[in-house]
Structures are given as C-alpha cells and as structure tokens.
C-alpha cells in the first residue's frame, strides 16, 4: 500500500528520491485514529485529534521537496500535529524542532514519536508565529498550517541561503517559498494552491 502511495505522489510530480523513500517507509496508519486506518495510504488529508488534520502525503512531499534538505540541516516546523511531517524530516536526517499550539496534540505526539524511533531535537508547546528565537538561525522553516500572512520572526530566523516554505492565504493558500539571499534580501516564489487548517495566533 505504501509503494502504491509512492507511485501516486511520483505520478503527481514528486521527484526527490529521499522524499519518496521516506513516504515509502513511514507507517502513516499509526499516525491516524483507528477509524481511518483503511484510508491511511490514500493520498488524502484526514482528521486527527483536536479538530486538526494529518496533511495529504502529496502536500507533505511537496513542501519537503521545497526545503532542499541536506543531512544535519536544522529545521523548524510550525504545526507538529500528528507528527507525520516531523517523521519525514527526521527520516531525511534533519535536526527537527517542531512547535504545536494544541496541548492535547503536543502531548500525544511527544509520547508517540519516540515509540516509532523518531527523535526530533525538540517538540515545543507554544505559538509558532514567534518561531523559536533561542534556537535560530535555521537552515529551513516549514509551516504546516494556513498562514494569513508571513510572520516576520520566521523570516528573521533563517540563515542566509535558508528557506521558508509557507502556505499563505485564508480560504485557500498559495504555497510560497522564501529564500534568504543576504541578511536583508529575500526572493519569493509561488507554487499553486493548497488547503490547510488555519494557523492561529496567541491561543496556545
Ligand atoms: N504537520 C502536521 C499537520 C497538522 S495540521 C502533520 O503532519 O500531521 C496543522 C497543525 O498546526 C495543527 O495541529 C494546529 O494545531 C497547528 N497550529 C495552528 N496554528 C499554530 C500556531 N500558531 N503555532 C503552532 N501550531 C499551530
């Protein structure tokens, strides 16, 4: 079933071999509530706890590809959720810091990931709009909730040559990549429309 899922995301345009291998390896069904087990290897988003969703595998792969990860990269994720995207980043050899604002999900995922052998550097309960200044700068930052605007602290916490991948918009979001070219200069590229649960502010 996982191989079929890899074939599906490949057909949709995912080229990076390491990203495909990670999707082919991670047991996505274990990240989902039991009522959705039958659907775990469909290329669809599904509900997890606290009215949140586990992202569609294609979306996870697409965002991960845009990060241009190398082993040992320091990566910040906003929106830990089920931990699936975090597991993909760990699988690719990144040092992962991930922030979640829902207490229930934060606790559940903090317990769960090590059981599967995934050890992010740090899972944080808090508000991702602020980023994680004490661990900055990052090689890349990935936002996995729909952001109404680009939080300035996230741009500020990138290394030069670092990448921020963030879906921007309200109803639907445009996948957007920022690359920091110098301390003051960013280039921006857009990659089509996606749908995420909203990135909420100051309610952790
Ligand atoms: N990466 C997750 C996707 C979860 S959906 C996965 O692979 O399963 C998006 C998550 O972002 C939700 O869990 C939601 O609670 C969280 N979120 C929303 N706004 C946030 C914020 N300001 N800071 C941190 N997390 C936030």
Walkthrough of the structure:
- With 204 residues, the chain is an alpha/beta fold.
- The chain contains 6 helices and 9 strands, in the order ααββαβαβαββαβββ.
- The strands form 2 sheets. A 7-stranded mixed β-sheet has the order 5-4-3-6-7-8-9.
- Helix 6 (152-156) links the parallel strand 6 (138-143) and strand 7 (158-168).
- Helix 1 (2-11) runs antiparallel to helix 2.
- The longest helix has 13 residues, at 103-115.
- It is globular, with a radius of gyration of 16 Å.
- Bound molecules: S-adenosyl-L-homocysteine.
Strand element count: 9
Biggest sheet details: 7 strands, mixed
User: Outline, from the CA principal axes?
Assistant: globular
Order of helices and strands, N to C? HHEEHEHEHEEHEEE
Look at the structure and name the CATH superfamily: Vaccinia Virus protein VP39
- Give the CATH level 1 class: Alpha Beta
> In terms of structural class, how would the helical and strand content be classed?
alpha/beta
Q: Using only CA atoms, what is the Rg? A: 16 Å
Strand content: 25-35%
Examine the secondary-structure arrangement and name the CATH architecture. Answer: 3-Layer(aba) Sandwich
Query: Overall pLDDT, averaged?
Result: 96
Record the strand order, biggest sheet: 5-4-3-6-7-8-9
- First-last Cα distance: 36 Å
Taken together, the total number of domains comes to 1
- Give the low-confidence spans: none
Return the CATH topology: Rossmann fold
Bound molecules: S-adenosyl-L-homocysteine
| Helix content class | 25-40%
- Helix tally equals 6
């Amino acid at each position: 079933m996982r191989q079929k899922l890899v074939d599906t995301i490949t057909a949709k345009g995912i080229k990076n071999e390491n990203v495909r291998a990670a999707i082919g390896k991670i047991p996505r069904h274990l990240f989902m509530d039991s009522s959705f087990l039958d659907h775990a290897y469909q290329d669809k988003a599904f509900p997890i706890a606290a009215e949140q969703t586990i992202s569609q595998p294609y979306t996870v792969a697409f965002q991960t590809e845009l990060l241009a990860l190398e082993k040992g990269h320091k990566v910040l994720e906003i929106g830990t959720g089920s931990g699936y995207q975090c597991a993909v980043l760990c699988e690719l050899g990144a040092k992962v810091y991930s922030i979640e604002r829902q207490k229930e999900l934060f606790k559940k995922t903090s317990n769960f990931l090590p059981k599967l052998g995934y050890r992010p550097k740090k899972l944080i309960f808090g508000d991702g709009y602020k980023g994680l200044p004490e661990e900055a700068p990052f090689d890349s930052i990935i936002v996995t909730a729909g952001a109404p605007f680009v939080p300035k602290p996230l741009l500020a916490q990138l290394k030069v040559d670092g990448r921020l991948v963030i879906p921007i918009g309200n109803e639907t979001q445009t996948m957007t990549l920022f690359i920091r070219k110098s301390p003051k200069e960013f280039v921006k590229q857009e990659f089509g429309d996606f749908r995420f649960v909203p990135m909420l502010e100051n309610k952790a």
